[in-house]
Design goal:
48% helix, three-stranded antiparallel beta sheet, mainly alpha, elongated, 94 residues
Length: 94
């Protein structure tokens, strides 16, 4: 016979699984703010990168599509390095 699982146990398991951070978020999570980070080590997700560039997330997607911003893809998520975003800022000034 198979073991019966109480409905409430299954429900709790479902709700706690989606609250955990995904492996990609853990991989790119920045170190503590009190430590000095090299610019090459700082990573941003799409929302943070758009905020850093002072543009909307949709405008960032357009720049990615036009290959104006260097990005890294982990699964279906886009990640950006701060040093690459600084190059975009310099190009926007000219």
């Amino acid at each position: 016979m198979t073991k019966k699982v109480n409905y409430t146990n299954r429900k709790n398991r479902y709700y706690t699984n989606h609250l955990r951070e995904s492996p990609s978020d853990l991989f790119f999570k920045n170190q503590k703010s009190d430590q000095k980070l090299d610019e090459k080590e700082q990573w941003y997700n799409s929302r943070e990168a758009a905020k850093y560039l002072s543009i909307t997330p949709n405008a960032l997607r357009i720049l990615v599509h036009r290959a104006r911003v260097k990005f890294y893809k982990l699964g279906s998520r886009l990640r950006f390095r701060k040093i690459d975003l600084n190059e975009v800022l310099q190009a926007m000034e000219n």
